[in-house]
Amino acid sequence: MRKFLKKHYVIAPGPTPVPNEILTEGAKETIHHRTPQFMALMEETLENAKYVFQTKNTVYALASTGTGAMEAAVANLVSPGDKVVVVVAGKFGERWKELCQVYGANIVEIALEWGEAVTPERIEKALRDHPDAKVVFTTHCETSTGTTIDLEGIAKVTKDKDVVLVTDAVSALCAEPLKMDEWGVDVVVTGSQKALMLPPGLALITLNEKAWKLVEQSKSPRYYFDLREYKKSYPDNPYTPAVNMIYMLNKSLKMLKEEGIENVWERHRVLADATRAAVRALGLELFSKRPSNVVTAVKVPEGIDGKQIPKIMRDKYGVTIAGGQSKLKGKIFRIAHLGYMSPFDIITAITALELTLKELGYEFELGAGVRAAESVFAKEFVGE
Ligand SMILES: *Cc1c(COP(=O)(O)O)cnc(C)c1O
Fold it and tell me: Pick from 122, 105, 104: which is nearest to 113 by CA?
């Protein structure tokens, strides 16, 4: 068999590819953080960060991955014994639950089949049954199942109630429409290595006034993630900020702002549409009941060894997608359309998928998936 050069393509839901314009920002000299120059940069960066959340609330940068911002949310909002509603429909919902357990919350779990999306009605019922619940924890896009929830509808339920709505938008921010203030979402957390097109290592969190009331009251122990300290020192940081990550975030936010957030959301939607069209054309089934624009989760067809799909794609073709996590291992595979990805990344992923499926003995017409994806792009590029 002929050997080709193997180029690497990351088409996984994080870490995602980082554009060169951003990488070179990160290579600049590390300046001291307690300087007027760095303070000006920090202020500009965090000011620009408000745009991607569509909020007027202050945004804080934490030197951690997204999970750190999740822990910060729980530690600062939940006191031991507080009743909280937690939606669990995948791996990241489970993470909210585990964090709430660690901080001693009294958990009302909305446990769904993985791949299902919680509805506003379901949240409304939980709050009717538990009017003393203080916080609702949701996952905007459950990356493990490729499912996006109706966050706008859910915020309509919580907005005028005495309850704080928290969402994990680590993968969803910039990939799915989110209008924090207009919708009335109280707390949003995100991480750097998804649609923000950055390496891992930085998390962002933003809270409104309603949420800050709980922060002031929380009796949970906190130190590094004590948000009161971040508020006090803003735009300075209570500890050493991730200086070079801030350089890169500054650049990424400028790029996203210049593109326009609606265009950013829309390009994710088109890549997702093309991916879904390709998958269906191959006779495969989507796993999610409410598919996201972040990542497409696909059911492994009957009789095929699911674990082999991402493995062959990576090792033979250099195309890294994601397999299933936890109980979905071997049952699904996930193709991302997240962050710095173009239509040609999708075409590449689908081509590698087709070659892999052919090798594994799945029957389909070679090229059907690529043709379906290309048709979606033709409509965008050529208008037909
Ligand atoms: C990636 C991701 C996280 C954060 O994971 P880290 O490993 O801490 O970066 C959290 N929630 C969701 C939905 C994610 O996709």
Answer: 122
